[in-house]
């Protein structure tokens, strides 16, 4: 089987633009026959396109990525996948942003050692950056809540006829499932509203 050249592209969300990576792959010194792309987080390697690529990758093939963090952001898993590709599948890898991470051709012992050190360092940086992003997100959420900012979807409004339907349920004329259907919400939502919502000017009585 003729050796092939694969490219791999990853962005974390559907809103992010993959053009920069695609341009870099298309400018590679040799034509890339097939490019696989995922729009998912790099926290692990359970990604559809990546898994398809790994099934297609065989001995002598070449995998090209723009940077090591496009491969993933989990330190241990990056090292494990690198080992699987280069040792088990006996394929080659080129990381465009880091020329030292190029397994093509024979390397002497010093070159191999340097590549291993660089790989471990970059993998560690990729995971650290991911953890820093999560920490900044958590801090941003906490600060927003401290300012009284409501996060997430706005609460579903209670329809005007809720209280009359609730009264039918409280007097055992309809079931909670039927009450929820009439109000247009899930049964759990109706029961929560029945406990929490209070009709203006009237105390709520709870069904035992």
TrEMBL record:
<dbReference type="InterPro" id="IPR006118">
    <property type="entry name" value="Recombinase_CS"/>
</dbReference>
<keyword id="KW-0229">DNA integration</keyword>
<dbReference type="InterPro" id="IPR050639">
    <property type="entry name" value="SSR_resolvase"/>
</dbReference>
<keyword id="KW-0233">DNA recombination</keyword>
<dbReference type="InterPro" id="IPR006119">
    <property type="entry name" value="Resolv_N"/>
</dbReference>
<dbReference type="GO" id="GO:0000150">
    <property type="term" value="F:DNA strand exchange activity"/>
</dbReference>
<protein>
    <submittedName>
        <fullName>Recombinase family protein</fullName>
    </submittedName>
</protein>
<dbReference type="Pfam" id="PF00239">
    <property type="entry name" value="Resolvase"/>
</dbReference>
<feature type="active site" description="O-(5'-phospho-DNA)-serine intermediate">
    <location>
        <position position="12"/>
    </location>
</feature>
<feature type="domain" description="Resolvase/invertase-type recombinase catalytic">
    <location>
        <begin position="4"/>
        <end position="148"/>
    </location>
</feature>
<dbReference type="GO" id="GO:0003677">
    <property type="term" value="F:DNA binding"/>
</dbReference>
<dbReference type="InterPro" id="IPR036162">
    <property type="entry name" value="Resolvase-like_N_sf"/>
</dbReference>
<dbReference type="GO" id="GO:0015074">
    <property type="term" value="P:DNA integration"/>
</dbReference>
<keyword id="KW-0238">DNA-binding</keyword>
């Amino acid at each position: 089987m003729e050796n092939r050249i694969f490219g791999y592209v990853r962005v974390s969300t559907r809103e992010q633009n993959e053009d920069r990576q695609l341009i870099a792959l298309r400018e590679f010194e040799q034509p890339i026959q097939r490019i696989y792309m995922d729009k998912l987080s790099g926290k692990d390697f359970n990604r559809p396109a990546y898994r398809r690529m790994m099934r297609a990758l065989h001995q002598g093939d070449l995998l090209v990525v723009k940077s090591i963090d496009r491969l993933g952001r989990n330190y241990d898993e990056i090292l494990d996948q690198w080992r699987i590709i280069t040792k088990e599948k006996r394929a080659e890898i080129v990381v465009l942003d880091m020329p030292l991470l190029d397994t093509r051709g024979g390397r002497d012992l010093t070159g191999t050692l340097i590549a291993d050190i660089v790989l471990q360092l970059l993998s560690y940086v990729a995971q650290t950056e991911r953890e820093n992003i999560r920490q900044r997100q958590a801090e941003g959420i906490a600060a927003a809540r401290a300012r009284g900012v409501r996060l997430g979807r706005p609460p579903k409004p209670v329809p005007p006829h809720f209280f009359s339907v609730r009264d039918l349920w409280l007097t055992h004329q309809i079931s909670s499932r039927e009450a929820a259907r009439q109000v247009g919400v899930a049964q759990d939502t109706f029961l929560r509203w029945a406990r929490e919502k209070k009709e203006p000017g009237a105390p709520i009585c709870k069904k035992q």
